[in-house]
Design a protein that fits this description.
The complex is a heterodimer of chains A (about 375) and B (about 375). Chain A has about 375 residues and is mostly helical. In chain A, about 75% of the residues lie in helices and about 0% in strands. Chain A is globular and about 60 Å long. Classes of the chains: A mainly alpha (about 375), B alpha/beta (about 375).
């Protein structure tokens, strides 16, 4: 663990927020409406609370082994399972990066660059991320810090233009959804919080280790609030059936609104431009994490070469799915494997590290 | 080597301008209205009419005379028509600034066609989702061509669009966009599209076509449309004319608020629609002995006005409920939102229950100001 790279609290917070809010944000109201109708805000609160718990697990791990980074701790505690676990986490990150890239490529093509081939958009995006990903966590922390206000602005902009015409009675009836669909909804919304695991890479480098938990909790609460705000705004503008049918409710919301006085119409261009930055902020940490794992597994000093080596893998991976439906539906698709891997690398592996760490400490 | 890098850098900057595939604004056609006619004896199902402004006829030194073009093409959908038209008009069509979609009676009477058109616009990446809708009884091609002859001609934005924007807040029709239509039908099962026609060199837009589950069920008169607009809080201002103590009285309503309330749910469901209107006196045939002096006079006047409005609204509500069987006042959705338990029980049979429920309109008029004379 190198001692010279340090990140501050605000950077950690920015990193968590910018890493969680990503591609899914445009389609979040759709997936929530499909499972819980108009009570998605409740589900989001529950999911947010769950993730505060997950973050506490991460914090505990590093409290147990102060001064060590994730890989050292994992090696010590997991023993024989160290390499398989690394493989799972690596695949998770790789798949994440692939999904982000493809998503970005598709949306850029249909909304902004109609005549540019998807391949070109994708390769340019990958190369741009490569540069930043080959740096250490402190540079990426600064990216988070830099994009944190932009993400808040993105949300603020959508809220500001949609407030005047919002009809909040759409949120009624409250709490009439049965428990089964709420459980299903929690399942859905958990996956919109994928990205917290970047904390595993960042916490050991935070300057003041004592108050990590506070920054993390604030970060997760911010994300929850952003999600709730966007969800409520779409519900207040469309009927539930409409949201269930629209793939990107946020984009349609922006499209249906005009700024007061008609001086600007079709604001989706602005939103898309901000969204690309949001996606970039998700891409880079995940890309970095994937390469970092490879470099630790092969015991190299630097992860730079792995970042470069991953370029063709990501490129091919992201143009492989034949269409968008294969990529995004939740049954038997790329997304589903990603969710399963995510469940392991987000919760199961950190939890087993913690438990085994405790047991080992007890034995000693 | 240094020179090579320099040359490469300069060459790269050429690519970075991003101008190599740009399209000039005047090299694209931005139609502002598109009309759908049903074709009977042809393979293609629609006769699609686009009208678009001629950019060369605008500005200080126009090079062309005709300000608006109208082109017609037979096709199976909006997008096919665009492709067909490329053989006839010089520039590609872009639907991003589409303002009005016009249907004929034939098209809205056919559920599949209606759903197809709505889906086409909503699904497309580029098409504007805020297009205003209009229904006409005869052909849309005629209407769009006649629009050119209309005396009140607006080049940019189009005559029909400017009328539909309804800047006078008329109650004779209620503008609706494609997005609103889908929302209204999802929430209440039905929606009203304004009705337009061409007569005496003028375009008229008044009344509305009632669409239930994407199918025409009937028409509303301008008065009925006003009633629905008031009761669903879509307009705030209108004039009321009545006779009071033998002389004519005209009131201007400037503020109105409608509330739906469930009165009883045992046996037959009873709904009360409370409408509170506020306004001032516009004009009053002032004779001796009929001046407005006391508060009692005012109260009496308010009551008389309320009675007139109430009767009118009740008639409209009854017709919509019993004859058209369309839930234009979103009573079902009100029950869903505020009386969810009751709604759960009747949701499935709502279509048969709705025409049978009791809907009672209750109007309260408040005259706040009497003007400068007594």
């Amino acid at each position: 663990m190198s001692k010279d790279s340090k990140i501050s609290h605000i950077q950690l917070r920015g990193l968590i927020v910018s890493n969680i809010v990503g591609v899914g944000v445009l389609s979040l109201p759709n997936s929530l409406a499909n499972s819980v109708g108009n009570n998605g805000w409740l589900v989001l609160i529950i999911a947010g609370a769950l993730f505060i718990g997950v973050f506490m697990i991460y914090d505990r791990i590093f409290k147990l082994y102060p001064g060590k980074d994730f890989f050292e701790i994992a090696k010590e505690t997991l023993g024989l399972f160290y390499y398989p676990c690394l493989l799972i986490i690596f695949l998770y990150f790789l798949l994440f990066v692939v999904i982000i890239t493809r998503n970005l490529g598709e949306l850029m093509k249909i909304f902004l660059l109609q005549t540019t081939p998807v391949g070109v958009i994708i390769i340019v995006f990958i190369l741009a991320s490569t540069y930043l990903s080959s740096h250490e966590i402190d540079a990426i922390g600064r990216l988070g810090y830099f994009l944190y206000p932009i993400i808040i602005m993105f949300t603020g902009f959508i809220i500001a233009i949609s407030l005047p015409k919002a009809d909040f009675t759409h949120l009624l009836p409250v709490l009439q959804t049965d428990l089964k669909s709420i459980a299903k909804g929690i399942g859905t919304s958990i996956f919109s919080f994928l990205g917290v695991e970047i904390a595993l890479f960042a916490i050991p480098y935070v300057e003041d280790r004592e108050n990590v938990i506070r920054s993390g909790v604030i970060g997760i609460i911010t994300v929850t609030l952003i999600y709730i705000a966007l969800y409520v705004m779409t519900i207040a503008h469309f009927s539930i059936d409409q949201i269930k049918a629209i793939v990107y409710p946020i984009l349609l919301l922006v499209r249906q609104l005009d700024l007061p006085g008609f001086f600007l119409e079709n604001l989706d261009g602005v939103i898309m431009a901000l969204w690309v930055l949001v996606v970039f902020a998700t891409m880079v940490p995940n890309y970095f994490a994937g390469a970092k794992i490879l470099s630790k597994a092969f015991k190299t000093k630097n992860h730079k070469y792995f970042v470069l080596g991953l370029v063709p893998v990501i490129f091919i991976g992201s143009i492989l799915p034949e269409n968008f439906i294969v990529l995004l539906n939740t049954v038997n698709t790329v997304q589903r494997y990603h969710y399963i891997l995510g469940f392991f690398s987000l919760l199961v592996i950190p939890l087993s590290i913690l438990i085994s760490g405790y047991l080992r400490k007890k034995v000693e | 080597m240094k020179r090579l890098i320099l040359v490469l850098a300069i060459l790269t900057s050429l690519v970075l301008t991003g101008c190599w595939d740009m399209v000039e604004l005047n090299n694209r056609i931005y139609p502002y209205s598109v009309g759908f006619d049903k074709v009977r004896d042809s393979e293609e199902r629609y006769n699609i009419t686009y009208s678009y402004p001629n950019i060369f006829a605008l500005g200080k030194n126009p090079t062309s005379d005709q300000k608006v073009y109208v082109v017609t093409e037979k096709a199976d959908n909006l997008f096919e028509a665009m492709h067909h038209l490329t053989t006839r008009i010089s520039y590609p069509i872009d639907l991003k600034h589409l303002k009005v979609v016009i249907f004929t009676e034939d098209v809205i009477s056919n559920e599949d066609m209606m759903r197809e058109i709505v889906d086409g616009v909503m699904r497309d990446f580029i098409a504007n989702k805020n297009v205003q809708l209009l229904v006409t009884r005869d052909s849309t091609e005629e209407l769009l061509k006649n629009t050119l002859k209309a005396t009140d001609q607006q080049i940019i934005g189009g005559a029909i669009y400017n009328l539909l924007l309804n800047q006078q807040h008329s109650t004779f029709f209620t503008p609706i966009t494609m997005g609103n239509l889908v929302e209204d039908i999802d929430v209440g099962g039905s929606a009203i599209i304004p009705l337009g026609y061409f007569m005496n060199n003028e375009i008229y837009i008044e009344g509305g076509a009632v669409i239930k589950d994407y199918k025409l069920v009937g028409y509303l008169t301008p008065k009925e449309n006003g009633a629905m607009a008031f009761l669903s809080n879509r307009v705030k201002a209108e004039g009321i004319d009545l006779y009071f103590k033998g002389s004519s009285l005209s009131l201007m309503i400037s503020e109105s608020k409608a509330k739906t309330r469930l009165i009883s749910q045992d046996g037959n469901i009873k709904i009360k629609l409370n409408l509170t209107m506020e306004g001032h006196i516009h004009s009053y045939t002032n004779k001796k002995g009929t001046e407005i002096r006391t508060n009692e006079d005012n109260k009496e006047m308010e009551k008389a006005a309320a009675k007139v409005v109430e009767e009118e609204l009740q008639q409209a509500v009854d017709r919509v409920q019993k004859e058209l069987k369309a839930d234009l006042l979103f009573i079902g959705s009100h029950l869903n939102r505020y009386h969810h338990k009751l709604w759960k029980g009747i949701e499935k049979d709502w279509d048969t229950i709705y025409p049978e429920i009791d809907i009672d309109v209750d109007v309260e008029v408040k005259i706040r100001r009497r003007g400068l004379t007594k």
